[in-house]
Amino acid sequence: MRTRSIFHADLDAFFVSVERVLDPRLCGRPVVVGGPADGRGVVAAASYEARAFGVCSAMPMAQAMRRCPGLLRVSGSHSMYGRASRAVFDVLGQYTPILEKVSIDEAYLDLTGTGLLFGGAIDVADRMRREVRERLRLDLTIGVSQNRLVSKVASAFAKPYGLFDVALGQEATFLAPLDVRALPGIGPVTAHRLKDWNIEKLGALADTASWFLRETFGDHGPALQSRARGEDDTPVCPPWERNESKSIGHEETFATDVDDHAFLRAKLSALLSKAARRLRKKGLLARKVSVKLRYADFVTETRDCTLREPSDLDGDFLDPMQELLHHMASRRTLVRLLGVRLTGLVRGFRQTSLFDAEQDFKTESRSAIVSAMDDIRDKYGASVVQSGEAAWLSNSR
Ligand SMILES: [Mg+2]
Fold this sequence. Notes:
With 397 residues, the chain is of the alpha+beta class. The chain folds into three domains: 1-167, Alpha-Beta Plaits, CATH 3.30.70; 173-228, 5' to 3' exonuclease, C-terminal subdomain (DNA polymerase, domain 1, Orthogonal Bundle); 243-396, DNA polymerase, Y-family, little finger domain (Dna Ligase, domain 1). 45% of the residues lie in helices and 21% in strands. The chain contains 17 helices and twelve strands. It has helices at residues 14-22, 48-51, 61-67, 78-93, 115-118, 121-136, 148-158, 171-175, 188-196, 202-207, 210-217, 220-228, 239-242, 261-281, 314-328, 357-380, 388-396, and strands at 6-11, 31-34, 43-46, 72-74, 99-103, 106-110, 140-145, 163-165, 248-258, 284-295, 300-311, 335-347. The strands form three sheets. The chain has a five-stranded mixed β-sheet. Helix 7 links the parallel strand 7 and strand 8 (163-165). The longest helix is centred in the last third of the chain and has 24 residues, at 357-380. The chain is globular, with a radius of gyration of 23 Å. Residues 10-11, 14, 105-106 line the site of magnesium ion.
């Protein structure tokens, strides 16, 4: 008997699959979603046919085009992705109320105790996949085990349109032959350090003496090892338990009303950097960012944007925020207040992608830079280290 039954459900090549529903001519051909090759466009998502040519997300579009002759590019119907995502999670939500969406195309579900109602875990997972395929024409892969961690690895392992069940007690055995990079939380930097000690497979990590890991990786070491053994008791947290009302934000009322866009952009970046730093101090990630603008006539406008993956890095919020601001500051009225708020807070690991080494590397090195900057700020004060626009702001005022 399984003590818990946790599913990790992940849509396959989600953006591309939605595009194929909208335009079936894209089916069976190498397709990417992303910006144009002549600009600075990058690949946001690639079909499996394109991935076979080495095309992956975050790759410059021009490079993707060179790698894969006949590659079809669509710029993306982003509002449709949100709608498709909600439709999928509505289907899955019929099987259990304990559903935690972790990104636009990914969720954990707790089906513990639903056996009598819906049948065995495998039957339920299979019904979910068939229902999503038949009703929405999207492919879903599901990993099943008694915890989130192992289910997540299992779904990555089973892709595309797969279903993989790791039996109770078999967690460590399942993980052992996999590369250490398969474990969420191990990025290229950690993997590289492990490789220096000839630890390349999760089995080797699980078997390494724990004092050695503590010596080498500090407190992180033993946690790494128990994860490599497939141990994880993080609960699946539906939104009503996550306290979505919690948020971290900063706002500022200006001494004199302003209409200078460059100033507003720089101010936004400075407010964000304060908020993101508090987020990191609390060990939280945010999935949503909102911008608030109050005009001189007290009309207030708020807009928000949801990230694909929760993050605690300034850089992940900055572009979407500047984009929001760009669309908002359209009235020919002076601005008196600007605010930034991070919501949808969750505790946990930043998601890493198995297929996206380049992106992981960027995230890990950015994360190292950001924590170094936090340390310096703690020692010498917040204004010592600033990102580009915030520095511009303090120099121009
Ligand atoms: Mg996916």
